[in-house]
Amino acid sequence: xxxxxxxxxxxxxxxxxxxxxxxxxxxxxxxxxxxxxxxxxxxxxxxxxxxxxxxxxxxxxxxxxxxxxxxxxxxxxxxxxxxxxxxxxxxxxxxxxxxxxxxxxxxxxxxxxxxxxxxxxxxxxxxxxxxxxxxxxxxxxxxxxxxxxxxxxxxxxxxxxxxxxxxxxxxxxxxxxxxxxxxxxxxxxxxxxxxxxxxxxxxxxxxxxxxxxxxxxxxxxxxxxxxxxxxxxxxxxxxxxxxxxxxxxxxxxxxxxxxxxxxxxxxxxxxxxxxxxxxxxxxxxxxxxxxxxxxxxxxxxxxxxxxxxxxxxxxxxxxxxxxxxxxxxxxxxxxxxxxxxxxxxxxxxxxxxxxxxxxxxxxxxxxxxxxxxxxxxxxxxxxxxxxxxxxxxxxxxxxxxxxxxxxxxxxxxxxxxxxxxxxxxxxxxxxxxxxxxxxxxxxxxxxxxxxxxxxxxxxxxx
Length: 462
Known about the structure:
Protein name: Arabinofuranosidase
Largest sheet: 6 strands, antiparallel
Distance between the termini: 32 Å
Helix content: under 10%
GO molecular function, one term: alpha-L-arabinofuranosidase activity
Number of strands: 34
CATH topology of the largest domain: Tachylectin-2, Chain A
Keywords: Signal
Radius of gyration: 23 Å
Domain Alpha-L-arabinofuranosidase B arabinose-binding: 325-456
Signal peptide: 1-24
């Protein structure tokens, strides 16, 4: 029920995306389309896929690969997926390039050691990785080159933002830009310092919206993630927010941003001071943010990562304008049923009354807020929506708030043939039964939650 800006039509999004280089689309850095780049639910039969390649809190010599369909619940795809032939792997940043390969760049040494190189590896499938090379960053008197972050500009050019310090001040970092000078990503321009951000900033992550570059560097003095903007990639940047401006707290590092399917921006960051990994969302060009929440499942394990987002085949599908009943995946005799305006999960069977069967029958239609999502009508024409996170049925009042409350994004379910229904305007919250009542609850990353939030579309009871 939090007001969010209305999303543009999917047709508008597809026209804009068709004009973009694949690398820009995959990174969600679509010029001029805040809340629009890949900001639509995946089409029927497709799925959103987010991939991260973090190093481990217990081991900076290898990385795991995780994937998620909602940017909240990350599942292990392969443990120890890549171990470099020498040195370490920290702060791995990942993209999918126009050649179809996935590339990571990373810090090659522990924080205690001199580190003048950044490493590169690539993969065709995200789980089998091949070392490419270590690259010596050509900054005079270099002491440390840390936290290289991929950046793909609106024209498709590929760059890396890397934090560098010199021997005369080894703990004072400045962000530099390296531009790829060939499509193989094996040759790089001379490094250029980003002006305006200033020394003693590290882990700078940048996204571009329209003609504006938005930078999120960590201030190494205050330990806060700050916010800066510029009209050119190399600056000059103006620092616009400092201190605890977003409510994320201090001793935070490794910011990385990605667009969500509902048009918002999500930032991930490493809460190294307390051992958690956090996310927070914005819907107003980074002016305000939701309260940070710990990522379920990987907090305390994963360290400093970036995210690559794709739309892939093989996702769940649900026919629209067809009546269905919805059976619990883990309580096979229980079904969605409207009871006194609320959605509950009672037992429904062949001996149930006609009225009970009718109350357990719904029509799935195109999402009110996003046509690739889903909305659900009961027999009276009222729509399933959340109110104070309780699932209930109300008549459509025509407002954008109602449309978002009544729209759900299909995600893969825990059982064969099942689907999960993620709240459109509260990403990471799902229709989930508890005490046989349906609520929109935040995923905790457990198998039980996935089972409780999975439902099988079946032939209608009425």
